[in-house]
Prior knowledge:
By secondary structure, this protein is mainly α. The chain contains 5 helices and no strands.
Amino acid sequence: xxxxxxxxxxxxxxxxxxxxxxxxxxxxxxxxxxxxxxxxxxxxxxxxxxxxxxxxxxxxxxxxxxxxxxxxxxxxxxxxxxxxxxxxxxxxxxxxxxxxxxxxxxxxxxxxxxxxxxxxxxxxxxxxxxxxxxxxxxxxxxxxxxxxxxxxxxxxxxxxxxx
Length: 163
């Protein structure tokens, strides 16, 4: 179930990269061909970028696209890789995700209290919504971490890769 959610979110945010490229092209054309700039469009690119990064983290974890020191890992047996994954997720990923979620809530709540908006004239009003993605990202990352822990435990128990 977690993998399915992560896949859906991953596919959705992948489309945002195309939107970012399109909006960036529009900004460039407006600025250099027509001499016009628009803060809202530039901020839209930033908002999309934040969405891709924060919501795409759990998908990157699921797809094994995250940064890993592969010098030794690639030479390990499947069981040893599962053990490394299990320890890494339990000792590092989950505690960091919990810490990010826990410490970001007051920051996000403060932003919601004032319905924080862009300080730029003509900027987008939803800064508080962007900040909300911080604990959401942490929860999605923790959920996917739990799925990865389950996968590692199945490999360690059975000695074979789970489907």
